[in-house]
Amino acid sequence: AALFIAIGGLPAEATGKHAIPPVVTVMDFVDRSETGNRKPWVAEALSEMITTDLVESPDVAVIDRNNIAAHYREMDLSRTGLVSPESASRFGRIATASHVVFGSYTVDKDGTLGAEVTVLDLADVEHVKSIRAAGHLAKLIQIKNDLVIEVLAALKIGISDKDKVLLLTPATISIEAAEAYYHGLLAIRDRELEIALGCMLGAIRNDTRYAEPKAALIDIYRALGDAEHARLARESFYREFPNHRLVFRELYDEAEGLRETGRRTEAVAIYERITKETLDIYAAGAWVRLAELKAGTKAEKINYYQKALFIRPDIGLFKEAAVRALHE
Question: Model pTM?
Answer without folding.
Answer: 0.74
